Amino acid sequence: MQKIVPCLWFNGDAEEAAEFYVSLLPDSHIDRILKSPADTPSGPAGMVLTVEFTLAGMQYVGLNGDPQFPFTEAVSFQIHCDDQPEVDRLWAAIAEGGSEVACGWVKDRWGLSWQIVPRQMIELLNDPDTARARRAQEAMMQMVKIDIATIERAADGIS
Fold first, then answer.
1. Burial of 143 (0-12, 13-18, 19+ CB in 10 A)
2. 71 exposure class (CB count in 10 Å sphere: 0-12, 13-18, 19+)
3. Under a CB-based contact definition with an 8 Å cutoff, are residues 105 and 95 in contact?
4. pLDDT tens-digit profile of 57-106?
């Protein structure tokens, strides 16, 4: 059991969200569902209170609350992707019912923000050639979903 487990507050649909999240990445699964033994301000006894799930090997808890505490962009999850097909697949799944933002950020249908980040982009932004890194960042800043080939061409000074 990991020492720190992020707890995500949902408006009654933690189980649906957890099922969606675990469908996205390997080493992901629902671990346990706790039904409330008593009435709570969020609902009656017997409702799903928490959903414990593992996402890419990391444990999370989804808590069914109410609309009092919606997600904000102040917290987001980064998914590091190995190639463009992985970026495209995750982007499409997360954006469905949500909203595309900018620079690799996308909100899912519950309002949780995700950053779909190609590993190549991180490497380019950390390139010791600062002009190359700058061109890569400038290209990324013009994008919504990240396109690896376009960023690589920009880094190489190819328009």
1. middle
2. middle
3. no
4. 999 999 999 899 999 999 999 999 999 999 999 999 999 999 999 999 99
3-state secondary structure of 92: helix
Residue range 127-150, pLDDT digits in tens? 999 999 999 999 999 999 999 999
Strands (E), 108-152: 113-118
Residues in the chain: 159
Q: How far apart are CA 52 and CA 68, in angstroms?
A: 21
3 state SS of 64: strand
**CA 32, CA 45: separation in Å to the nearest integer?**
17
What is the 8-class DSSP label of residue 43?
B
Query: Is this structure's pTM higher than 0.90?
Result: yes
